[in-house]
Fold each of these.
Amino acid sequence: MADALRRRGMAERRAAECALLFAEASRDGVASHGLNRFPRFLRMIAGGVIDVHAAPACVSAAGALERWDGRRGPGNLNARAAMARAIALARTHGIGCLALGNTNHWMRGGSYGWQAADAGTIGICWTNTLANVPPWGAADPRIGNNPLVVAFPRVRGHVVIDMALSQFSVGALTEYAARGEPLPVAGGFDAEGELSHDAMAILASGRLLPVGSWKGSGLAFALDLIAAGLAAGHATHQIPRNPEQETTLSQVFIAIDPSTLAHEDLDRLADAAIAHLTTGEGDVRYPGARTLDIRARSLRDGVEVDPAIWAEVRAAAAG
Amino acid sequence: MADALRRRGMAERRAAECALLFAEASRDGVASHGLNRFPRFLRMIAGGVIDVHAAPACVSAAGALERWDGRRGPGNLNARAAMARAIALARTHGIGCLALGNTNHWMRGGSYGWQAADAGTIGICWTNTLANVPPWGAADPRIGNNPLVVAFPRVRGHVVIDMALSQFSVGALTEYAARGEPLPVAGGFDAEGELSHDAMAILASGRLLPVGSWKGSGLAFALDLIAAGLAAGHATHQIPRNPEQETTLSQVFIAIDPSTLAHEDLDRLADAAIAHLTTGEGDVRYPGARTLDIRARSLRDGVEVDPAIWAEVRAAAAG
């Protein structure tokens, strides 16, 4: 992937970092925003949507709060730089917030949660997206599924949640449809406007269900406004609707450094809370546990790749 | 309500403010955390759970981040003071964050979102609660339904979402059960472990559904850890399980002041986003619209009260 990016003009170190973020997503079990997404990323570079040379720049600052212009650079590099800056602000001010406008899809949102937690900070970040979900009460997409990431650092494995605000992503629905499996919970509406467990019917109607129905619908709208407002960027209704033209996204990155306050044993707290959460009947895992399992398996056995996509990336790296 | 509080030893001005927060909740259509909740509030004062004399105090500070001890004071007064301090921090640092431990139920969470937006700031706050929802994969309650509030200021009406992380609160389920109405979406599991639209069956099993199933389950857990960790307070697993003994809650209040950055017309942005959200087929409202409608009706026609509860409060005010 790094070779393919260099061949398209990306500077050596940036290409390595960008490729690493894709590879880490696949390693952690999120191939949809890892290797499998890479061919589209290259097409969006070729189409002029992503500028491989652009780096984000601060356009307004107020202590612990900053507004940056992503200048349509690679979304994952921009997001990583944004969270790094939020972490630096948190070291100084206890909390730091960076709003990033005019950027591209950040690929796996969880990356920036893990990044914050690896730095010992609490991370909260979200992005808007093109309109891909109908708000509660309508049948046509008017809100984004605006992924929200929340991370809490822990020595024995961070607590990280990375959730799109639709109950299922289009990618997840496609996988259920391909396997012919019913969804475990209703994931949207069929053509008749009935709540449905049929992934195929939901993909056909385009009526994905927001997380929590009216609740996620409202939350996605509010998070969109905050991101666009703080970043002086675009809100969902201003973002191109074609996925391969999706750009000018707005994002918020918040980091909180607990070590700036009087010492508190956060690890003991998290360990105890996880013990209470996971002990007892049923199969309960804490958010982040599955990622560590998949990561360990990948590091031991290698990362599974789709052979067709792998061949496509190898070809892109060669020419 | 203010008279009843004064009779129980609360100082004049604090009693007025505390009563106002209850009254405003009823005025805005949230009687469950307004007047209807007031008798329990008095019982918790009588039981020594709530200390009418206690005011919150800062115990650790780091620039834009502060940790406060709620000293088991009245939860709504503590929360209002906490958001006021977060707003003050945001005026100085762009963003402010206050973590409040050892506090009591904040009653209507939306109050603090409206408070932030009335001050022209973006507000984000959440609280943990006693364990009242089973995490995804279990049948017994181990997580709180940890309400999350997000507010965005707007001249023609703030955008405010106030959402518990269970699909329905116990109060809402009770109302559906009383009316014998089916829930519009699945709200939990019945005794057989099947997803159910039957409020009575869900109340009987105690298996409320987290918003977004596994997603809200993970989010509630992560928000609990952040609140308890930053506040050096209790996490859900440490909070007494009897609702009338529920205390030592942990909360986070974040305010962001967009006016500290270069000027951006947030009102125009919000108006345009709301126009796009609400225009077209179907009945779509922005979060906060319904509150303003109910508020206007209340201010015009008076606030509807439950006669039995009203009589109880009048008796408490008299003696």
Amino acid sequence: MAIEASKHKTTQRKLRLGMVGGGEGAFIGAVHRIALRMDDQFELVAGAFSSDPARAKASALTLGISADRAYGSFQDMATVEVARSDGIDAVIIVTPNHMHGPVAKAFLKAGIHVICDKPLTTTVQDAEELVELVKTSGKLFVLTHNYTGYPMVRQARAMVAAGELGVIRLVQVEYPQDWLTEAVEQTGQKQASWRTDPARSGAGGCIGDIGTHAYNLAGFVTGLKLEALLAQLTSFVPGRLLDDDCQILLRYQGGARGSLWASQVAVGHENGLKLRVYGSRGGLEWVQADQNYLWFTPFGEPKRLITRAGAGAGSSAARVTRVPSGHPEGYLEGFANIYTEAALALRAAIDNSPLDPAVVYPTVQDGLDGMKFIAAAVESSNNGNVWVKLK
Amino acid sequence: MAIEASKHKTTQRKLRLGMVGGGEGAFIGAVHRIALRMDDQFELVAGAFSSDPARAKASALTLGISADRAYGSFQDMATVEVARSDGIDAVIIVTPNHMHGPVAKAFLKAGIHVICDKPLTTTVQDAEELVELVKTSGKLFVLTHNYTGYPMVRQARAMVAAGELGVIRLVQVEYPQDWLTEAVEQTGQKQASWRTDPARSGAGGCIGDIGTHAYNLAGFVTGLKLEALLAQLTSFVPGRLLDDDCQILLRYQGGARGSLWASQVAVGHENGLKLRVYGSRGGLEWVQADQNYLWFTPFGEPKRLITRAGAGAGSSAARVTRVPSGHPEGYLEGFANIYTEAALALRAAIDNSPLDPAVVYPTVQDGLDGMKFIAAAVESSNNGNVWVKLK
Amino acid sequence: MAIEASKHKTTQRKLRLGMVGGGEGAFIGAVHRIALRMDDQFELVAGAFSSDPARAKASALTLGISADRAYGSFQDMATVEVARSDGIDAVIIVTPNHMHGPVAKAFLKAGIHVICDKPLTTTVQDAEELVELVKTSGKLFVLTHNYTGYPMVRQARAMVAAGELGVIRLVQVEYPQDWLTEAVEQTGQKQASWRTDPARSGAGGCIGDIGTHAYNLAGFVTGLKLEALLAQLTSFVPGRLLDDDCQILLRYQGGARGSLWASQVAVGHENGLKLRVYGSRGGLEWVQADQNYLWFTPFGEPKRLITRAGAGAGSSAARVTRVPSGHPEGYLEGFANIYTEAALALRAAIDNSPLDPAVVYPTVQDGLDGMKFIAAAVESSNNGNVWVKLK
Amino acid sequence: MAIEASKHKTTQRKLRLGMVGGGEGAFIGAVHRIALRMDDQFELVAGAFSSDPARAKASALTLGISADRAYGSFQDMATVEVARSDGIDAVIIVTPNHMHGPVAKAFLKAGIHVICDKPLTTTVQDAEELVELVKTSGKLFVLTHNYTGYPMVRQARAMVAAGELGVIRLVQVEYPQDWLTEAVEQTGQKQASWRTDPARSGAGGCIGDIGTHAYNLAGFVTGLKLEALLAQLTSFVPGRLLDDDCQILLRYQGGARGSLWASQVAVGHENGLKLRVYGSRGGLEWVQADQNYLWFTPFGEPKRLITRAGAGAGSSAARVTRVPSGHPEGYLEGFANIYTEAALALRAAIDNSPLDPAVVYPTVQDGLDGMKFIAAAVESSNNGNVWVKLK
């Protein structure tokens, strides 16, 4: 239990968090709250849970937030919290996408660290401004690309880095879902409504919602930088305003190639994120729904099943693992690992103490990369499926 | 997020817990602490984490327990806590097996509810005394047979109860592991030491450690009562004092039959708990390591894959589920479900309010059944593998 | 294509076969005919395809047998064929079980080699007489326990023999089906009728039909001899005269133990033969329906997937394999391997030439072992599930 | 056993075949010979097994061909056989790719039916000439795109045709292998040598060898016609003259889209052909290595496992199936189905009798389509990965 053992090593107190968005009924807010509690590093002490002040207060009450820290607006929260001696150490942003940027700016300017849901913003320009602001503010910015927290994703990344696959040649990544097979956004389904609305989601639909996860995962595991892409985005469902399927060819710096497929109309898939990486000496495969397993084939040898915390899993997986092999971990544990890494980074920042070099988490730069990826894919698709260089 | 939404419905405060055993380095203590935090229903405020007072204090400090509630003995804790106005609502017992009984008795006698790890005790007589004491005390007793908390186990139970399998004929349950393939108890491995020591584990080794889990799961899903068993317990590893493999034939009341296999020397298995149930109209299969899936075959139709929170999963699964289908849940979520059910039961008991009839959790009676199962298996094996009736 | 390359090495002609039973509409006769054609070692030139002479002739015509070798009785066939200069080299017996013995005796006495479907006979005494007759006749007797022909079964056997699993401790074998879930024998279904009729199938139902396959496979792979068994045979379907489910505990000579489960009422299983073997150093698992794969776990290392003709598969598998890895082989290829081994043995016997020591096939002795296994299981079950020694 | 039962219905004799290419040591020749024997519809009576006359004779002898029908050249074989009263009914062409066209022309011109391995030729022009010649000759031309013979591929095709998936939106097909991960063609490996040699394989490497299989399979199952493609062909291994990896975007007539990936450097894959099809009402998935299974998800319902000959499989699968469900069929059975369909078509053609409309097999037109596909992919890749219309 490496994670629990490390608790309180630096500051001997829990880190204090506030949340913007994520009131009652919001799926992702609840996920963040479970994740932050998992390893007992944090307490949630403040919130502006809704843009509707009454709803914000009600949510705060339900969540056990004291009345004086239940804010009606995120601006108030930034102003008041920074002035309190027991003010929040960091803010969690779980609003709809188009508000990520404005909220993050307000807290960074107030000198408060940020933990933000993906995608970073809705435009590349907004993302670039945010990157700049993070730099000048000197504050931490943790982007919750949660799949990077899975132990076997860490294991895969370590194996690639150690050269166990040789030179990487091919990256095949896919993220099929089927929940938008029919026009549910026209029936008032809330999750579908904002995800298919350009005003709230930006220029990308499927590409922004899940394509970015696939892209981020591939880069995280392989360490490769994308040089150019060629995309075909499609809206299969009549009347849909954003893409619900993305077929993308990939060219990485250094010569690796691959493809990315994300879809919200692939009947039979729930959250079918799958990554396959092939090198000159080996290949590996990982499937999110069965996250405790990693398949590895050294060229010319039988395929091997590496299990989380089992034989063949190394220290990169072990440090973000809680239970023994054969007892599965899930999505929430992976999400919590992002929070635990954030806790280590926040304590080091706040205490001005050294940070374990093994700590890794997605940053504002990853968020900007994701926005550029979306923009390039949309540009390529709109221009007749041509190669577009990532800038 | 049904679970989060239900928070504070009754008492508008977190439930207060103390823990006996489970200090630093103890695996199962840490699991219980994560589980109790998952849905934010509890706070851990007191502890007697070790029989060594110095170690108990150190653990308490690390776990953020205030000094006045870090106890050197469980007896002190029972006496002092019951007298506090903010005393604990329930105690968690995560000591070695032979201490479960004495600790439980102390807290029940003090009028404090109990959450206890399995197995209940080390002898049937102790277990029977405890059942009697629970009755007379009027207190709740929650036994953490955690596999009953998995959503697809709940789903399976509901399907059997609804008659989707017809009359149950066969129950095939197995729990293979391989961690005792070699004589690690002779090398000082702590987990192996007490689990292979009759003084600390009772008369059963493998049968008590994991055979009881398999037995409990089969009964939970099918609702069947075991009438008799015939067991062959074996110690394959030279010098081992308790069984490391159990082959058991099962006869249930009403005519169903089956077999149970548990092993700690089955190379290639981590925690291979698997249940298969066959009836006159259908069959189902569930594997703990892949807990989000349930296979169901209606006779004469194609096999179906029911996924947690996906198509085909009903309300029994939904009420103990946190994330959407395709995003896996794991062992800790299943364990947390036992705690969340306990929270609902504790609030109803403390507030004298009605309890949702859907709430289900293993009790002291399940613990007694498990002890009788172990005793019968040992008796059968010692007497030449003869049928022994469950009393 | 080692098999094809070896063709005609000894006699430069195809081996001539006759068939008893297996006329039109009989499933297993057609399987034998495809199997004997697969590697072009045999030609089918004579037959007594039915006890009804008219039907026998009609089947012969359809199968391209010349009129003078279409026999109305097996006795005629034995008498006439042995006298022909181009008479059959061997007879294939695919009659209902109770006729295996009489037909085999007739041909052995005539000096003709025998290829016979399992089970050998319907009683142990008949089987013992046949063993004796084979000895005195000096003829070959090949029993088509076809699962022993699968390449990965050969691979598993070779790995056990080479000590890759260490000392074998546990054998878990099962063969679940579901086709007798309902009382189809009462609806005139032909396959079900004779298989549930003691007069035609002997004292065992499920145990004789598929339990013997499981038993034979376990012995073939491990090389272990069964010392004793304890069986619980059940007829779940009302009115059924023979067992449709068998739960058996196993004790092998030398200390290995295990269990065997065979069932014809396990809804969701087609031909679910599965073998798992565990030793002091490793474990392996093989599933008939996915016969091209063998799972092997060296203790303390990741599980490995050995594929037929792929990395990790050795010469034992290679010599009975036709197509490259990744292109599946099936049931018919496994069955054909028995015939190809038989061809090698027959040529060596006929030509009085040396036989490749790698050749292996089930014999009349395996058939007798199977009959003893059935008898012991029935005896154990009838006497209250007691241990019965194999004689 | 529908297939065996149908034997001799038309001509009451076996069909006579000759073979060009496929002498000893040639993998695919042996596969064709097993396939033609499987259902006893054919006899191999003539051959020009090698362009080296001595080797041709030796192979013929080994294969049991009479000396007067062991030809030194395919031209001789065509001339002589057509003049014999017992001449061959059809020729099998299993030469290297560049000889398919010349040999086929010689036999078609002689008035002999043709069964030919894929790809059809090495250029589109050659293929078009062959299509024309087939038309004018009035002879049958069977292209052995063997994967179309698998029962579950037939099942999938029937389900799409019956509208069970609704309107098809997406086709994801892949065929990864790993056997060319290293430059084995430089070590004298024969299979690798000709497959990576433009002179013998044509302009496509991986695209021609296995990409065409994937393309053909997708079209066979969906019935969709490809409108345009955009391809990125890569040679990852230094010094390799042809592509060893293909990434292709697909646009079908009517609006369906998809992608095709074929690779010979994807470490861990043997013959990983996999097809996924998604429509407005359902999705399905089929994997060649596990050919007995078909996964089908009706939108909003649990995923179903349809097994060959099991529940849910219809008549399209049943008519090309030999053994019951749960007993696997393999590659050779699928290949044999092409031959059995060919036998039905040949008998109808020779006897001038009606042909069962259920009979389906790949034709010279499919071969031309494949050549156009290869040409378009090479053109797209050479011109900077632009859309190329299929002509």
